Amino acid sequence: MGTPHKRGRCWYSRIKVPIELAPLVGRREIVRSLRTASHQEALTRCKLWEARVVILFAMLRNEAEEMPPLNVSKLVNQYLQTSLQEGEDDRLSRDSLSTQEQGAITLAVSGKLGRLTAALTYNDLSAATDEADQLLAQHVIALDKSSEDYRRLCRELLKAQVKVFQAELRRWNGDYSDELVTVTPDRAAGELEADTEPLSVVISEFVRYKEADQSWTRKTGVMFKSGLQLFLDALGDNPIGTISKADLRGYRELLHKLPRRFATRFRGKSLQEILARDAYPKLALASVDKQLRYVKALFSFAVQYDHLSKNPADALMLKKSSDPQKQRKAFSANDLRRIFDATYYAQREKRPDRFWIPLCLLFTGARLEEIAQLDTKDVRQVDSVWCFNIEEESDDKSVKTTQSVRMVPVHFRLLDLGLLEFVSSRRADSEQKLWPNLTKTANGYGSAISKHFNRRLRAIGIEDRKLVLYSLRHNVVTQLANKGVQDYLIERLVGHRSEGQTFSRYTKDIDVGMRSR
C-alpha cells in the first residue's frame, strides 16, 4: 500500500488504486492528508487509513461483479452527443468572431483532428484513454485496462473523437449539413425511455429473430437490413427509447430528399454526400413508404419484446399516391405488336436472354427476377407438363415471398418458338445458368434486361412511363381475368398471397360483361 510522504510540515498518505477499480474511484491514486507533522504519528494514522481503503476496495470489487456487461455503443454515443453539445455551447457563449479569431480556432481544430486521425491510423489508443476513464467513472464501471473490452472502448472513442472534430471543423465554418435529423429537445419527460438499448442493438436482435423465424426471403432480408442501416445512419445509435414521433417525421422528410436508386448510384458515399446530389429525381412515394415500413416493423418488434412501452411509429405510414391500378399499365394489343416485331426476333441468336426473357414474362406472368435467375435444371417436366421451377434453393436465387415458390407451366407458344431446344443447347454446353451472360448485381440478375427492354419501348415511340417491362405481368393477369379464370388460380400462378392484392393491383380494364357475371 502507500507510505507517508511529507509536503512542507505535514505528512500525507498516497495509495495507488488498482487498475480495475480506477474507473469506479475516478482517479489513479488516493492522496490524503494525515494532519500531523510527526513522522511516528503519521505512520500510525497511515496504517489506519490504509485499512479503511482496503475495505473500500473490497466493496467496490463486489459491486463490479454485479454490474451489467459493458455497452460500448451507449458510452460512445454519450461521448458524441456531449462533445458536440459542448462545442455548440462554446459557440453560443461567444460574441461575434473576427477573421483572425475564426482562423485561429479553425487552425487549432484542424491540428487536433490531424493528431487524432494519425492516432487512429497507427492504432495509438493512448489518445482516448482519458475519455474512456472519465466515461467509465461516470457510469461506475470497472474495467481492466489490459482487457479487450477496454481497448475496444478506446478505439471506438478514438473514432468518435475524429467524427467530433470533423463536425466541429465544419461547424466553425458555418456548415451544419452533418445534422441529418434534428433530435427534438422539447419532448415531455414522460415520453422518454432513455434507459433502453441502443438502436443498433435492437436492429441486430430484430434481424436475428426474423432470420431464425425464417419469415424473410433472402431478398427481403437484404432489403430490410439495408433500410434499417439507412435509418441508423440518419438518426445515430441513440437509445431506441429516445426516438420520438418528431424524429421519425424528420426521417420521413429526409427520405423525400434522397435521389432515386441512391444505394446503387452512390455506393460507398456517406448520407451527407448523397443528400448533396440535388440534380437527381427524388425517391418515389412508394419507395419512401417502403423504407418507413422497415422502420415500423422494427418498432413493433421493440414493443412486442419489451424494448419499448409505446410505439412512436404507429402513425408513420404514408398514404398511397394513387390507387393500385394506376401504378402500372398493361400494354395494348397494338403495343405488343410493335414491341414483338421482326426487329425483336432479330436478336434471338446474338442475345438470347433479351429475346427469351420478355417472352417468358408475357406468357407466364412471372416476375423478372424469377425468370432471370433460372438454372437449366429449373425447366423440367411435372406430370408430363413442362414447367419453370421457381425457387431459392441456392444462394444466388431469391423469391419475393414464400408463396412465390411454385411451378409455372411453360406456355405452348414458348414451346412452339423452340424454348426446349434452347434449354437443351445450354445443357449441352454444361451451363448451370439458363442465361449465363447475365451478371447478378445489387438489383438481381434481371436489371440489365429491364433497362434494355424499357429503352426499346422509348425507341419505338412508347413514351408512357407507366408502361415498362413489368407491365407484361399485368397483361397476363388481366387476360386470365378476362377469360374467367378464378382469382385463386391466378394468384397461385403469379405467386401472390390470397389477400385480394392481385385483382386490385394487376387487373386492368376487365371487360364489363365479365365483371357482371
Account of the 3D structure:
- The protein is mainly α and 517 residues long.
- The chain has four domains: 4-65, no CATH class; 72-171, no CATH class; 189-304, no CATH class; 333-516, hpI Integrase, Chain A (Orthogonal Bundle).
- Helices cover 53% and strands 6% of the residues.
- The protein has helices at residues 22-25, 39-65, 72-93, 99-121, 129-138, 148-171, 199-213, 218-235, 245-257, 262-265, 271-275, 285-304, 333-339, 342-345, 352-364, 368-372, 412-416, 419-428, 447-459, 471-482, 487-494, 501-506, 512-516; strands at 4-7, 10-16, 29-33, 379-382, 385-390, 406-409.
- The chain has a three-stranded antiparallel beta sheet with strand order 1-2-3. A three-stranded antiparallel beta sheet has the order 4-5-6.
- A hairpin with a 2-residue loop joins strand 1 and strand 2 (10-16).
- Helix 3 (72-93) runs parallel beside helix 6 (148-171) and helix 4 (99-121) runs antiparallel to helix 6 (148-171).
- The longest helix has 27 residues, at 39-65.
